[in-house]
Amino acid sequence: MKWVKKEIPADSVRSLAKAYGLDLLTSSILLRRGISEPQGILYFLEKDLRFLRNPFLFVAMEDAVDRLSLAAEEGEKVLVFGDSDTDGVTATSLMVEALRSFGIEAGWRVPSGEEPYGLSIEAVERFAGEGGSLIVTVDCGISNHEEVEKAAELGIDVIICDHHKLQVEKPPAAVAVIDPKVEGCGYPFRDLAGAGVALKLAMALRFGKTPFYKQPVALLSLRADRTACRIEAVRLHNMVETARFSETLEEGSERTGAVLEKLARFLSSHSIFVLDKKNTGRIFRRIFGEGVELESFDLGEELGRRHPALSGKDEDSLAKELGILKYGHPDGGALEILEVLFSLMADSQGQDGSESLAGLMQLAALGTVADLMPLKDENRIIVRQGVEWISSRPRQGLEELLRILGIRRPLSATDIAWQVTPLVNAAGRIGEPGIALRLFMAETPVERENAAQELVRANGERKRLGAEVWDVVYPLAGRSYEETEKRYILLGAKEVKS
């Protein structure tokens, strides 16, 4: 085979390498793959979780968080219903773990034995009989119109977290439908795994524990030289940008009063955050007069308490240190810097620690790899960071499984795909997905060790069944191939069960 490499200009290679601090080989590979735009490059180079997309871009996400907040407050009985494959099992484990961290003692169920895929009427009726009031589906649900309708009849609300394509015009009438493949969902990336969608809800719940959830926030930047001031502001709702303000005002301009009035309307009813309250106030009074006061919160001071290494630095220094402007921004500069800094500050409030998030990311990475989702956009960050954490600090369940398998670290996504996910998947393939769920959710190391041993047994059983099926279908396939004059293969055998 002769490989023909796409020709690319040498100056383009050097230019890209210089702009992003790359070696020439990496730069040439990116260009040959047609990746030259900042956002595309970002997902190939970065693993920092701050580059993940905001979960509240899903238009239904706030409804889901509100309903789960009510469930937590009222002590409701909640069920997570998932699927039996690796993506479904990891999504189920992830969601149960996230809900428990949120204050909800959720139960779980996935199809086992000969039970069909997806939420069933039987599961809904049984849950109703147990006094349940809320079901969260993961990696399924988008096709369960009748089941969701039945749940409503029995007084049960349903939140759907799925990633499959809707086969009819409208989704089920659930409290919230979170699915990146549903038209009008608001989310810009459609190729999340089921566990990836569950991760989005988990991250939204983490933000829901902060004082900024549903609170109107405005970020304000004032940059002045000797003759003029650049005024920029942005409104945020759950970290989603809703409006921008931008004015350049020359000192002593007759427009000063009108700009002040316009800015006041823009900031009205919002909590205003600035990077340096003292300096911003000084510029504000210089531009608008000593009699005008700005009520604001000092983002830099709060950030410095939680991240001492960032204390006392100005916008430009912080932007350089954190690489904030490395990948550009359509409106550029000050506001993007403030948004990232505010996100860092908000993320450190009301959270349950990085260890919990690391565990959830590992589950999302497993599900993404196992379901063969395209490794592009934020899937690359989920998998890259998740696999790195599996290698360096594997979560409960994975630690026991890796030890029993004797897998050497560091691990790659290929190692995960070929050596880990088949075992997790094996439990569902033989009709016992509960084994894999116990691996991730059992409370004691002994229970998780036993579950890991059972997974090894299940994988052996899967291989045995596969070999038996092969022995039956291989000669039948050859016979069918000849009988159809090598056009297609059609076969069936009563010895083979689905």
Main sheet attributes: strand count, strand direction, barrel closure: 5 strands, parallel
Total domains, how many?
Answer: 4
Q: Which outline best applies? A: globular
- H/E series, N to C? HHHHEHEHEHEEHEEEHEHEHHHHHHHHH
Q: Under the CATH scheme, which architecture of the largest domain would be assigned?
A: Alpha-Beta Complex
The count of β-strands is 10
Beta-strand residue percentage: 5-15%
Provide a count of the helices: 19
Based on the model shown, name its key terms:
five-stranded parallel beta sheet; 11% strand; 50% helix; 498 residues; alpha/beta; five-stranded mixed beta sheet; Nucleotidyltransferase, domain 5; 4 domains; globular; 19 helices; single chain; inorganic pyrophosphatase (n-terminal core)
Could you characterize what this model shows?
It contains 19 helices and 10 strands. Helices cover 50% and strands 11% of the residues. The radius of gyration is 27 Å and the shape is globular. Helix 1 packs across helix 2 and helix 6 packs parallel to helix 7 (145-153). With 498 residues, it is an alpha/beta fold. The protein folds into 4 domains: 10-51, no CATH class; 55-208, inorganic pyrophosphatase (n-terminal core), CATH 3.90.1640.30; 217-347, Nucleotidyltransferase, domain 5, CATH 3.30.420.10; 396-458, no CATH class. The protein has helices spanning 10-20, 24-32, 38-45, 61-74, 86-101, 121-129, 145-153, 194-208, 256-267, 277-288, 299-306, 315-322, 334-347, 354-370, 378-392, 398-405, 413-429, 434-441, 445-483, and strands at 78-81, 107-109, 134-138, 157-161, 176-178, 217-224, 228-237, 240-250, 271-274, 297-298.
